From TrEMBL:
Domain annotation Purple acid phosphatase C-terminal: ranges: 396-453
Protein name (record): Purple acid phosphatase
GO molecular function terms attached to this record: acid phosphatase activity; metal ion binding
Domain (Calcineurin-like phosphoesterase) ranges: 172-370
Similarity comment: family membership: Belongs to the metallophosphoesterase superfamily. Purple acid phosphatase family.
Positions of the Purple acid phosphatase N-terminal domain: 70-159
EC numbers: 3.1.3.2
Cofactors, names only: Fe cation; Zn(2+)
Source superkingdom: Eukaryota
Gene3D superfamilies per UniProt: 3.60.21.10, Purple acid phosphatase-like, N-terminal
Amino acid sequence: MQENIKMGVLGFSSSPSSFAWFFVVLSLVMNAAVLCNGGKTSRFIRKLEATGDMPLDSDVFQVPHGYNAPQQVHITQGDHVGKAVIVSWVTANEPGSNTVLYWSEGSEIKKKAEGKVHTYTYSNYTSGYIHHCTIRNLEDNTKYHYVIGIDHTMRKFWFITPPEVGPDVPYTFGLIGDLGQTFDSNKTLTHYEKNPQNGKTMLFVGDLSYADHYPNHDNVRWDTWGRFTERSVAYQPWIWTAGNHEIDFEPSIGETKPFKPYTHRYHVPYKASGSTAPFWYSIKRASAYIIVLSSYSAYGTYTPQYQWLQDELPKVNRKETPWLIVLMHSPWYNSYNYHYMEGETMRVMFESWFVQYKVDVVFSGHVHAYERSERISNIAYNITNGMCTPVNDQSAPVYITIGDGGNIEGLANNMTEPQPAYSAYREASFGHAMFDIKNRTHAYYSWHRNEDGYAVEADSMWFYNRYWHSVEDSTS
Ligand SMILES: *[C@@H]1O[C@H](CO)[C@@H](O)[C@H](O)[C@H]1NC(C)=O
Ligand SMILES: *[C@@H]1O[C@H](CO)[C@@H](O)[C@H](O)[C@H]1NC(C)=O
Ligand SMILES: *[C@@H]1O[C@H](CO)[C@@H](O)[C@H](O)[C@H]1NC(C)=O
Ligand SMILES: *[C@@H]1O[C@H](CO)[C@@H](O)[C@H](O)[C@H]1NC(C)=O
Ligand SMILES: *[C@@H]1O[C@H](CO)[C@@H](O)[C@H](O)[C@H]1NC(C)=O
Ligand SMILES: [Fe+2]
């Protein structure tokens, strides 16, 4: 039905002010077109049933051998510019060592960094010993080896630091959301790992373990998720966004502090960007400036997140970091019949800023499917003027929903019809994406569905940077 390509609705906002009445009529016609003529709805056929969570004795959940061996190893960026890394891990039996031993490849000099350890309880669950250690003053673009644990249970990993922040530094980000720990989740992660585009850092848009799916939010499933993802996140940073499945708010079992397991297990460098909470923060990495927002923390006027973002956006220097990327969990533009308009209140607060500061792209999750928007904005409405339809806007970001990691809740396949014109491509399949920055003007984006081979692109787009090369980059 909706395979048809959208009509020419672009450019109507540039109508000359003479012939005003003609253009009022024209824009009414065009608005009808905006409402009714979407981009492409893929009719790709796939199995819709969720594959359950992988059983506790699965290979991907195996505890490493040896008494108190470090497990659930994960890293993330540890400062604002990419010269520090936070290394985190869990020891099950006793606190053990907090030390990370590390050295750059080929170097004889081994350095040590000292971390901290803590535990937490959740209902009747008590966590293992969770360690976090920040390694600082790292060289750019360098491979580092690191070792944690002691004696016969030492475990060795490596990571590569990003090149120094600068406008033409090529860099490839991976994108996964709403991953969970099903057989499909494992497929998504495998496809990401085997994608020949070779993602260097993961932008994770929220909803990690789905432990809250279990009675008492059985936090054992946070541990299994940590062991499952270690094979990627021990070797490359994942940049974390908080989703609704991180809230773990359950007063009926005495758990009244939101985000308790998440904040104990996953640390982010929020203080480095002047944030006062780990749910919203920013980092620079290569040629990108990445702003992480929280759909589940207050964002109204005067709130800490609002104030932070208001102060943050003017600090972004596009001459240094041309690519301005925003991550959040709940999408602002979503044409599925799931979580419809849940992102609306945040959109009302922040969208005009995204247009003013020419955000290149916004990635979200939450809806368990894939969707890419046109460059559109919806900021003219003021309660009485009736101007409440998204319009083509070349200063606006592209909005991408990538909540299709493969969790236990299954696919969102019920879409609003007809496909709205703001929606360029939508498909209910599990998968991951890549955002491959080439230079200050060009980035190549691709989405890969799990049913295809590792290198196949089901959807793709050349992004033209909004600051350096702000020409039309629509694909329809
Ligand atoms: C916690 O309580 C649940 C339900 O009563 C039970 O199934 C589970 O085994 C308990 N877990 C621990 C660690 O005691
Ligand atoms: C998960 O994927 C990996 C890599 O493809 C594979 O070796 C492993 O057997 C899979 N495990 C499960 C439980 O599907
Ligand atoms: C609302 O928008 C209309 C049309 O753009 C404008 O004439 C009117 O003054 C606006 N109202 C307020 C309160 O800003
Ligand atoms: C799709 O969602 C709409 C709106 O929530 C609902 O009315 C409809 O029954 C759903 N269709 C299917 C096939 O579930
Ligand atoms: C930027 O990258 C694009 C795509 O690879 C290329 O076509 C273009 O020439 C590059 N620009 C410069 C200035 O190198
Ligand atoms: Fe979600």
